[in-house]
TrEMBL record:
Residues noted as binding ATP in the record, renumbered to the chain: 12-19
NCBIfam families: guanyl_kin
Keyword Magnesium belongs to the record: no
Key words of the record: ATP-binding, Cytoplasm, Kinase, Nucleotide-binding, Transferase
Official protein name in the record: Guanylate kinase
Length: 196
């Protein structure tokens, strides 16, 4: 794989606020970030667009990409629900001269960090508590009670991986978390920051 800019990973249990943080960072032009769109075999939700939210593919298509070694990392998160990062996606963004930012599950995040230890900043976003996580997931109203309980059970396991990341942001207060994330990324990509 050709090497280019920096890789910035944000991982967290579902509902921790990592997507909000990543969206905020993408809006900061001085950081020169581009979002790495993941591939998935899970069904598309309402309002999701192929190539913008995910690259949606069938389970057999996904397995073909695995066989062809097209992924930087991939995982079967739930049965037949695969997620992964296509090498071609990262290469495309690096070719545009961008630093690549990921909103990715903890296992995938740590795999990328292992492959590119020097070029990667891995940040874990910690929610106030697993109970708070459950409240946030329920507020979303996008999933069944069973799915929410599955995510909450998985969150406890994911929280245990936090020490393996370069930095941990505690998302108790969103504005504080956003400032902290901006400072971390700016330092990593070598950008001077003015206090916002």
């Amino acid at each position: 794989m050709i090497k280019g800019g920096k890789l910035i990973i944000f991982s967290a249990p579902s509902g921790s606020g990592k997507t909000t943080i990543v969206r905020y960072l993408l809006e900061q032009p001085e950081l020169n970030l581009a979002f790495s769109v993941s591939a998935t075999s899970r069904p598309r939700r309402m309002k999701e667009k192929n190539g913008e939210h995910y690259y949606f593919m069938s389970v057999s298509e996904f397995k073909n990409h695995i066989k062809n070694d097209d992924f930087l990392e991939w995982e079967e998160v739930y049965r037949d629900n695969f997620y992964g990062t296509l090498k071609s996606e990262v290469e495309r963004l690096w070719a545009e001269g961008k630093n690549v930012i990921f909103d990715i599950d903890v296992v995938g995040g740590l795999r990328i960090k292992k492959k590119f230890p020097e070029e990667t900043l891995a940040v874990f976003v910690k929610p106030p508590s697993v109970d708070e996580l459950k409240i946030r997931l329920k507020k979303r109203s996008t999933e069944s009670e069973d799915k929410i309980n599955m995510r909450v059970a998985k969150a406890s396991v994911e929280m245990a991986t936090a020490p393996q990341f370069d930095s941990i942001i505690k998302n108790y207060d969103l504005n504080t978390a956003l400032k902290e994330a901006h400072q971390l990324v700016a330092n990593f990509v070598g950008v001077e920051t003015k206090e916002k």
